[in-house]
Structure formats: structure tokens, C-alpha cells
Amino acid sequence: MANPDLWLKDDLGYPVYSDFDGNSYYDFRQEQARNLWIKAAIDPVINTNGGANGVFLDGVGWITLQDCRLKTCGEDKASCCVFSAESEEALNQGILLAVGSLKDQIHELNPDHILIGNGLANYDFHSGNGNPTYEHFVDLLDGFCMEHVMGFEAVNMHATEPPFIKIEDLEILITTEKPS
User: Could you tell me if 44 and 108 are in contact, meaning their C-beta atoms sit under 8 angstroms apart?
Assistant: First the structure.
């Protein structure tokens, strides 16, 4: 694991793995980790000499880590990862800093380049949590991809005639508030 000091560790010091293959997350609380992440995103844009006109960020959103959200820590790499509210907040603030810096750097390369985020969905809204992905990232991105439009939870599975999409869910995604 290259640069293990830049990988996310829980409050007990255990690495947080993103999968069972031992891949880790960047610790966005650290400036050096944020810069490495930005470099990984922006270098392909630079190296294509105009062939790529921006960056697509998958999984944009506020990361929840408390209450045993991840179970990839401990000596067994299968125990609850321990995060305080302060650690979770610091990681998310670091992500916001990284995304904002990435947008600035993409636009410095070419003002027409774009930074698109994927992850705008209705899960939080329907849970009564508002739309935190939109609220946190709207000023940091040039736009959002709404991947689940006409897919997954946005489909009216019981419809026998149009519309086959849940219209109210689409309106929430567009306006970020529940339609009246």
C-alpha cells in the first residue's frame, strides 16, 4: 500500500478498507492526501491534450462513518470502524475542500472544462434529511448527473401505462424540495 500515512484510519488507528481486496480511502483531512486525489483526477485531463474536457466524480455525497457504518477495521479487518462526529465532519470538510480545489484547477486549465458529480438522489430527502448532496456540493460542481432517473428507485414498478417514472421524485431532484 503506497503512502499508507495518507490513507484513512479510524479513531483507533485502524486502516479503513473500501473493499475486501485491501484498497483504502484517501484521508481527506490531510492536505497531501487531497492533493494526491486531485492530481489523480486532473492528470488524465492534462495528458489527453484536449481529448478530455473535465472530470466526472462518482459517488459525490456526505460520507457517514459513525455507528459502525463500515466494518473493515480492527486486527481482523472485519470490525466496526470507530469515528467520532468530529472525525466524520473533518473528513467531509476535507472532501469539500478537495472538490472545490479540483474545480478551480480544472477551470484554470480551461474555463470551458467541467466538473460533474454523480450522487444526486432522493434517499436522504425521503428519510427527512433534506438533500445534503445538493446542499453541500451545488457551489463546488458545474453540474450533477442524476444516474437513477428511470432506474432503480425512480421507476414506478407498478405502472401499467405512462408515466413509468415517479414524477414526484424527479421533481424533488430538480427543485430540491417536495412538490406541493
Answer: no
If one counts every other C-beta atom within 10 angstroms of the C-beta of residue 158, the result is 6
**CA 156 to mean position of chain CA atoms:** 26
Would you say 109 and 45 are in contact if contact means Cβ atoms under 8 Å apart?
A: yes
pLDDT digits (tens, 9 = 90+) for 82-130: 999 999 999 999 999 999 999 999 999 999 999 999 877 666 666 777 7
Q: Which three cell numbers stand for residue 22?
A: 485491501
- How far, in Å, CA of 120 to CA of 174, rounded? 10
Which run of H or E residues covers position 179?
none
The C-alpha atoms of residue 172 and residue 178 are separated, in whole angstroms, by: 5
Q: How many residues in the chain?
A: 180
Closest CA to 116 of 91, 137, 142: 142
CA–CA dist 92, 96 (Å, integer):
6
Q: Which helix (H) or strand (E) holds 152?
A: none
